[in-house]
Amino acid sequence: MSTMTTPTPSASCFLVGPVPFKDVAGPEDDNHITPPEECGHIISTLPTIAFLGRFVHHQYQGAWVIHERLPGVLSFQRSFTPRPGDVLLASPPKCGTTWLKALSFAIMARAAYPPTAGDHPLLRLNPHECVPFIDDLFSAGQDAKLEALPSPRLMNTHMHHSLLPASVAVDPNLKVVYICREPKDMLVSMWHFGNTIHPCDFSDMFESVCEGKSPDGPIWDHVLGYWRASKASPERVLFLRYEEMLLNPVESVMKLAGFLGVPFSAVDEVAGLPADIVKLCSIDTMKGLQVNKTGASGLFYKFQHKSYFRKGATGDWVNHMTPEMAQRLDDIFEYKLRGSGLSFSS
Ligand code: A3P
Question: What is the similarity comment for this entry (predicted)?
Fold first, then answer.
């Protein structure tokens, strides 16, 4: 019997990394295709809430998904075909998605765009314009734009792991990078971000998160899904924590590059390539760029680019929560994560 196996392609097979999504897809197209009728039928059967009295969410397969993005989840589950080299960045909202997008793009595209190049795409495009958000893309019926991207494709989602189709969840050629964040800081970040589109009371948002009824909540289930997947398949799912990345950004970039199949050589390290990528993607650099000071993007909600870059620090929750609130959220997460080996308590 032959012992030969077919080698599986990885990101390292591609000499040139991902191309900026906007360069291929062009400007955002606000003409959304109406979801199929059966989609409306499924949605009408689901539990529904109005988050903060305004944003309609449906509970689908255990996750609270905002109304506008549910057709995208259904369509993604039915029609997404992974390709060798695909990389999916996953996160709950407000946990460092923008940063992870910038870092992953800069790492994977560094052969075509060295991080110190004056024409680096991240100097003229917001990270969300470089890396497509598939939840919106599929909801708007614009998934053909994902097909038009050359490999390797870099994309992101806020979907729970349990919502990913089997083709993604078990595909050996598709890598998933997950980032999560200390829940109290995530909540504070979500409140500030939410206020840019709809002013709300902090206490209302706090209650919603505690009840698990927040965007892409329950957040503990979101985190647990990817945590378990990373434990089961560490070669396919990398689990990152925002706080650890802030503490050791260069080390984190090297770990990320290794996982993505494009490790830095000793020469790269001596030349300071990982540190250059950290600098390019730092919140100070990103905040200072004209493209991130102005403009907005998003297919269903136009988010100001500047609203993605606030403090970029840990521990801001002390400025917004009473000790009792902090204890309550800590206790909820401790309880929900018990026995998993994952904890946010220091
Ligand atoms: P704060 O609101 O606590 O400052 P997301 O990208 O998932 O929406 O997360 C937004 C959070 O990540 C915000 O946190 C934002 O400031 C922070 N952030 C954005 N870019 C960053 C970067 N380059 N480095 C570190 N943190 C960053």
Answer: Belongs to the sulfotransferase 1 family.
